[in-house]
Amino acid sequence: MTQRVLTGITTTGTLHLGNYVGAIRPAIAASREAGVESFFFMADYHALIKCDEPDRIARSRLEIAATWLAAGLDPARVVFYRQSDIPEIPELTWLLTCVTSKGQMNRAHAYKAAVDANLAEGEDADAGVTMGLYSYPILMAADILMFNAHRVPVGKDQVQHIEMARDVAQRFNHLFGRGREFFVLPEAQTDAEMELLPGLDGRKMSKSYDNVVPLFEGGAKALREAIARIVTDSRLPGEPKEPEGQALVTIFDAFATPEQRAAFRAELRAGLAWGEAKQRLFDQIESQIGPMRARYAELMAHPEKIEAILQEGAAKARALAAPLLAELRAAVGLSRFSAVPQAAAKVVKADKPALPVFKQYREADGRFYFKLNAADGSLLLQSEGFEAGREAGQWVARLKREGAAALDQAPVQRAEGLAPEALQAALAALQEAEQG
Ligand code: TRP
């Protein structure tokens, strides 16, 4: 079964080398694996929680989009979008908000940290805390559950949020699923790699420590200047140096093959000057980042190209989000009114739009098939051939029960020229009828 992997980056700033090594590079590598379907997005609704400078948010989301693309993301292979282009996400956020217990949000790390800081300063506990900050884990749960992601690669600080997403998913499934699981329960994936890159001073590379190496910002010059500021020990040229534990070496490792790593260590032990070592590090990083920086500059000069890519991504994302949200709305009692049931049942039946029909049959090749026809007889869906009639029957039952959600796995093909939404709508209608 395909594994859905989803991750978002909050669009409040400029990315640094640590973001590239820890998040972007491994995410793109994973998106190229077989059996993985990746969802990458700019978390720009999240940005509003931390930042009230519109220009900064606008610039950051463009930069982060360009960075993903420049780093080699193939938008045809993944679903790549801006959170704020998917209105289904805030809508789902509200449905989830209504089943999330306040007590659990009180325990969220980001909120608790704000409260602790306030109390330490003798302020009111909630001073400066917005409802956005407070409810942030619910928005994040919606990001994840909207696309039924199995795996969410995140830093350790985000693990609690994934657990909260699981909890709220379970509660929603339990309250409204009537035996159905609307949501996959996501798992956090914390790679050692996500934490690994040290900054200039040896602590974890982070904006808040002011120890970052910029990724593209400022060009090769800024890269060189940052590397010059990496803290080393005071051993002189010619003196043997212990490479292990040096931030400079760990950063080098992130861009080097095992052979290059061994050679660099050997040179340091043989007395290579730190200044020389910094030049090696610069060359090593620049050989990989330089070509990306050129693509980045090209993309930043053409925001309209990025926009077009994101619009396509949003269309792909919404084609998945809209049918699920329609089901969720119905499950909580927000479906459209339709003609009166029971009393006028007979009349109603005649008035109802005729449903599509599954037909099962056997071909001359001896195999069993099924197809789905619209009420007017036109073809919507065609199955492959099965050895056993029972197998065909089971798929028909499952499609009726689960609707479009089963399509990914079912051995079927959409009729040529038919819009995916039309098929989804037909299956949703059948599913609704099935559930009575
Ligand atoms: N909150 C995450 C962070 O600050 C970003 C994010 C938002 C995210 N929505 C997400 C990450 C969904 C993974 C999945 O790092």
TrEMBL record:
Keywords for the protein's UniProt record, in alphabetical order: Aminoacyl-tRNA synthetase, ATP-binding, Cytoplasm, Ligase, Nucleotide-binding, Protein biosynthesis
Sequence motif 'KMSKS' region, residues: 204-208
Function: Catalyzes the attachment of tryptophan to tRNA(Trp).
Main location class: cytoplasm
Binding positions (L-tryptophan): 143
Naturally occurring in which organism (per UniProt): Roseateles violae
Residue ranges of the motif 'HIGH' region: 11-19
PANTHER family: TRYPTOPHAN--TRNA LIGASE, MITOCHONDRIAL
UniProt xrefs under InterPro entries: aa-tRNA-synth_Ic, Rossmann-like_a/b/a_fold, Trp-tRNA-ligase, Trp-tRNA-ligase_bac-type, Trp-tRNA_synthetase, YegP-like_sf
Record-listed E.C. numbers: 6.1.1.2
Gene: trpS
Chain residues that bind ATP: 10-12, 18-19, 155-157, 197, 204-208
Superkingdom assignment: Bacteria
Family: Belongs to the class-I aminoacyl-tRNA synthetase family.
Pfam families for the chain: tRNA-synt_1b
Keyword Transcription regulation: no
Record's catalysed reaction(s): tRNA(Trp) + L-tryptophan + ATP = L-tryptophyl-tRNA(Trp) + AMP + diphosphate + H(+)
Protein name: Tryptophan--tRNA ligase
Localization of this protein: Cytoplasm
Gene Ontology MF annotations: tryptophan-tRNA ligase activity
SUPFAM superfamilies linked: Nucleotidylyl transferase, YegP-like
Top enzyme category: ligase
The protein's assembly and partners: Homodimer.
